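FORM 12-B: Structure-to-Sequence Request
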């Protein structure tokens, strides 16, 4: 492969901030989240985040502005608007913000408070992501959620009243013993709220979760596919374009932060268990922080907080890039592959094989998965391992 270097200034920069606590752990969740026991150390955790950010920025002064910030968890809305404002003010003093920066905060309907929502807007949060998961109270109970259907609508109304004009709803399908009619009713209820964005994704059973150990009865593959197809039709009919495997948006409203992940952009990962990816000095590196909040609080701001810090080998870069970019319906520009990996697409022999098998197409400098490639995405990706 050609001896090149990634072009850093052509790669967007984002920031991910992880807030690890929840009121309780959901049985399907494999994210780094921890049930809150006792009082949350809000001030101490914010202090730790800022020490961690300062440590991350010691390696190289960032000349690129932040294009997006995402505060995920866990349940970031457990933190007060004052704490979120303190974090964003501190980040603003350390890094330049793009004029149209997208700043997202995840919220749980069961922890929603109108005063906090208004405070988040005042602090600079301009996008809210609400973890709905279902609008069926029986399903919500099975999923271990602490909210009910009415609280979803109440939280949504509070968010609009507070001034949020960009809202995402997370909704799952193929839930335990869910019928096609029940899944359709869930989606129609979410669509009636008219959010700008919907993350609509299938429940999967992950190892090291309660559902992974004691799996519930889920719809079979045929029914799950029927639910997905019906959902995609409903979303399209209501003006939501699918731009990624499980992401649907109104025109101009794709999630900029997530697009940065899928397009192999750079992002700083700050917080307990946070992952980051950064391009510098001709290399691409991944870092991950300590997962447990206690260890993170103790070591944040030092190298001891790093659980992983490694350079991605050049022969791993094609897969690293494509496992994200091929999730996008529009695929990627060949120029972006060359710029962000420092490699040459034309010399990638696996690409020729994928074309011959009808899994990808190349046209006008763009590569995208075919319908066959999207349906067999894992098989497509294995060609590049």
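FORM 12-B RESPONSE
SEQUENCE OUT:
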């Amino acid at each position: 492969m050609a001896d090149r270097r990634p072009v850093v200034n052509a790669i967007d920069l984002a920031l991910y901030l992880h807030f690890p606590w929840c009121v309780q752990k959901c049985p399907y969740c494999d994210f780094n989240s921890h049930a809150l026991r006792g009082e949350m150390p809000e001030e101490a955790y914010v202090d730790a985040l800022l020490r961690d950010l300062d440590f991350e920025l010691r390696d190289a002064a960032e000349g690129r502005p932040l294009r997006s910030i995402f505060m995920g968890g866990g349940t970031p809305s457990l933190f007060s608007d004052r704490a979120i404002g303190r974090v964003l003010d501190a980040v603003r003093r350390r890094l330049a913000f793009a004029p149209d920066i997208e700043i997202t905060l995840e919220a749980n309907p069961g922890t929603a408070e109108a005063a906090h929502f208004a405070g988040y807007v005042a602090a600079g949060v301009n996008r809210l992501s609400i973890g709905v998961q279902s609008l069926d109270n029986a399903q919500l109970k099975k999923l271990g959620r602490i909210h009910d259907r009415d609280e979803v609508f109440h939280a949504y109304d509070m968010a609009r009243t507070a001034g949020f004009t960009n809202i995402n709803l997370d909704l799952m399908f193929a839930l335990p013993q869910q019928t096609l009619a029940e899944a359709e009713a869930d989606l129609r209820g979410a669509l009636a709220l008219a959010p700008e964005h919907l993350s609509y994704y299938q429940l999967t059973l992950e190892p090291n979760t309660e559902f992974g150990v004691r799996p519930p009865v889920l719809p079979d593959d045929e029914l799950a596919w029927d639910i997905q197809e019906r959902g995609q039709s409903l979303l399209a009919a209501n003006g939501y374009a699918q731009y990624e495997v499980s992401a649907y948006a109104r025109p101009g409203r794709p999630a900029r932060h997530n697009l940065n992940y899928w397009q192999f952009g750079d992002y700083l990962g700050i917080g307990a268990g946070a992952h980051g990816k950064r391009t510098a000095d001709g290399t691409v590196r991944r870092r991950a922080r300590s997962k447990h909040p206690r260890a993170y609080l103790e070591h944040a701001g030092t190298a001891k907080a790093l659980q992983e810090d490694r350079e991605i080998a050049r022969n791993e870069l094609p897969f690293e890039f494509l496992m994200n970019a091929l999730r996008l319906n529009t695929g990627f520009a060949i120029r972006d592959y060359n710029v962000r990996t420092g490699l040459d697409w034309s010399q990638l022999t696996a690409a020729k094989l994928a074309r011959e098998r009808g899994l990808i197409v190349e046209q006008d400098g763009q590569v995208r998965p075919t319908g066959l490639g999207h349906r067999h995405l894992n098989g497509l990706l294995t060609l590049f391992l």
